[in-house]
Design brief:
The protein is of the alpha/beta class and about 300 residues long. Helices cover about 50% and strands about 20% of the residues. The termini are far apart. The mean pLDDT is about 95.
Length: about 300
């Protein structure tokens, strides 16, 4: 489908290397003939990314220079800040009427751009997110990670207004980007940006037609637990910024019940999606991963630090 409006696609580098190369290979095969700019922000910690420019001449590799995160670059918190800063740099550089945001682990279905532009034209919403499937084959630990992070976005589900969409597969109107510029100008934090619209009574729309396939290299449990704790802590810190003191205290006191509720919620949802037996096999991993996330999240509530 041709569309006179311009699409900007921001690619957040998480793994780089062959993961990014595979992602861009999928983008080059989009069944979409409208105007599109693909922006890949990179900093000096992954300076080798620039070498892909010759392989993908239509892609804009955006050098954002050296970044000194608040935490050491070798830590999970430092790495997450780099992701946030790359997203912000991509948004600042985007010139499209519609701005999509993906990450190199989430390879888009080949009709992604066409479906995205159709949805924005037909629905007119400022924020439209999409489905996140687990890229197969995936071992039990990797699948458990997928369930704890993205299980709610796995198909099947009914498209419509929701309370959350993920920055792994999300898009914004030009108006949405400009309206929230003060929020994301330095670091892109998904909960803060999306709360802006929810607080104003606007819709976050989730579509099952807009699909990416998320995959990561086979993970080790120890490294995943460190990641889950620190990323949970960042999430808790961001949410604490939005809470009243009373709300913050409520979540801290309720923390012992959060992980068991997550196990039950994940299980019921995966059963509804037809993956109940796979969930039971992965349950030990789900339990420990979600427990470490909750511990980090609550520590973020307590300390209000990432």
């Amino acid at each position: 489908m041709s569309d006179a409006r311009k699409l900007s696609l921001i690619v957040t580098i998480v793994d780089a290397g062959e993961q990014l190369r595979g992602f861009l290979g999928e983008v080059m095969q989009f069944d979409y003939d409208g105007p599109i700019e693909v922006i890949v922000p990179y900093d000096q910690s992954i300076a080798e990314t620039a070498s892909m420019a010759a392989e993908f001449p239509s892609v804009q590799f955006l050098d954002i220079g050296a970044i000194e995160p608040e935490r050491p670059i070798t830590t999970e918190a430092g790495q997450h800040e780099l992701y946030d800063r790359r997203r912000a740099a991509g948004l600042a550089a985007a010139t499209g009427d519609v701005i999509g945001m993906l990450e190199d682990r989430g390879w888009p279905q080949r009709d992604w751009a066409r479906q995205l532009m159709r949805l924005h034209a037909e629905l007119g919403h400022n924020v439209i997110g999409g489905a996140i499937e687990c890229r197969e084959p995936a071992g039990l630990l990797n699948w458990a990670f997928y369930v704890t992070d993205f299980g709610r976005y796995g198909r099947p589900f009914d498209s419509g207004p929701v309370g959350w969409v993920s920055d792994v597969n999300v898009s914004y109107s030009r108006k949405a980007v400009e309206d929230t510029r003060p929020i994301w100008s330095k670091r892109f934090h998904e909960p803060l940006v999306h709360s802006y619209f929810l607080d104003r009574g606007e819709v976050l729309y989730l579509s099952s037609d807009l699909v990416v396939f998320h995959g990561r290299a086979p993970a080790r449990l120890g490294s995943l637990l460190i990641e889950r704790f620190h990323w949970g802590r960042l999430f808790g810190k961001i949410r604490a910024m939005q809470f009243t003191p009373g709300q913050r205290l409520k979540y801290i006191l309720a923390s012992p019940a959060i992980a068991p509720l997550l196990w039950l919620r994940h299980g019921l949802l995966q059963r509804k999606k037809g993956r109940g037996m796979r969930y039971l096999r992965a349950l030990p991993f789900v339990m420990i991963l979600s427990t470490f996330w909750v511990a980090g999240e609550v520590w973020g509530y307590i300390t209000r630090r990432a």
